[in-house]
Specification:
203 residues; mainly alpha; Tetracycline Repressor, domain 2; 10 helices; globular
């Protein structure tokens, strides 16, 4: 009998591939090797299942970000850690990114209310990090929502657009090859470096 975590893993993959509207409870139940009645009994309807998928991801990321705030003092190291948490392999970053990009495109119409405070907790961790950077004389002031969107947006696009990158690279002129195959963690580090270049206070 699969655990609830196993079911949530399968559901996350379905929501990432097909979106909230396209994912079907009977297909998720079949993939999880449980009957539909068991799925409803153990998790709930599709709204409850979607909420459980997102709540698990955001809770885990939020807990790691709170640990970051408690254990890392350097503002730049905090920003780097923040980005690495966004693309952490433990949370299936490609699935997480696909789900969130769908929500952004749809205006968040399927985002459950109980997930919004968890998202705000992540932005709050970044806000505190940026404020510490300003206090340390390291950063210029910046809007935490915009910084979060820059990191989240760039990392999410990279996590999901591998097939497009490969097709574009295949059409690159001879002698000017493109390298589309940075790992997600390496790409996240590069994105963070570019962001930090803009945040740093110059004297």
């Amino acid at each position: 009998m699969p655990s609830n975590d196993d079911i949530l893993d399968i559901a996350a993959a379905a929501f990432a591939e097909k979106g909230f509207e396209g994912a079907r409870m009977d297909e998720i139940a079949k993939a999880a090797d449980v009957n539909k009645a068991t799925l409803y009994y153990r998790i709930g309807d599709k709204d409850a299942l979607y909420a459980a998928v997102l709540e698990r991801i955001f809770s885990a990321k939020g807990a790691r970000m709170q640990k970051m705030l408690a254990t890392i003092d350097d503002a730049e190291d905090r920003v780097r850690t923040f980005t690495r948490i966004l693309v952490d392999d433990h949370d299936h970053p490609e699935q997480f990114s696909a789900i969130m990009l769908r929500e952004v495109a749809g205006g968040g119409r399927n985002l459950p209310d109980n997930v919004l405070p968890l998202m705000a907790r992540m932005v709050g961790a970044l806000k505190q990090t940026l404020a510490e950077g300003v206090k340390q004389g390291r950063f210029n002031s910046a809007n935490p929502f915009l910084v979060h969107m820059m990191l989240m947006g760039a990392c999410s696009l990279y996590a999901t657009n591998g097939p497009i990158r490969s097709r574009v690279a295949a059409l690159a002129p001879e002698g000017a090859p493109l390298n589309p195959e940075l790992s997600l963690s390496d790409a996240a580090d590069s994105i963070t470096d570019m962001l930090l270049n803009g945040l740093r206070r110059t004297t």
